[in-house]
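A favour, since you know our structure tokens better than I do. Go ahead and set the record down below.
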Amino acid sequence: MVKAAIVILSEMEEHQDLGRVVNALQLARELKEAGDEAQVIFDGGGAVAAVTLADPEHRLHGLYQEIEDKVAGVCRYCARAFHVYEKAEALGLPFLAEYKQHPSLRARIADGYQAITF
């Protein structure tokens, strides 16, 4: 069985960044449909993408909803650094702060997950 930690580092302002985020969500959906283990982690500028996608008014919210159960969380530090902490909290997004207020990719790799960044 595949175990993948999908790390979204991109915001969605530019066309190419939107493409990265959509590709990450598509991978999460494909893994989910195959019965594989997947965790989606929003880190860096991905914290902005997380609050954008979690907003029911956004056009890609439906795709986000399909993989929402695979979302491990949003980097707590980056949510603050990118000024979306309060919005993420209001949307009920979980925060990750396992290593110095950031998600721990090392812990996931040690658990057998392959880290894939977008």
Q: What stands out?
A: The chain is about 45% helix and 20% strand. The mean pLDDT is 97.
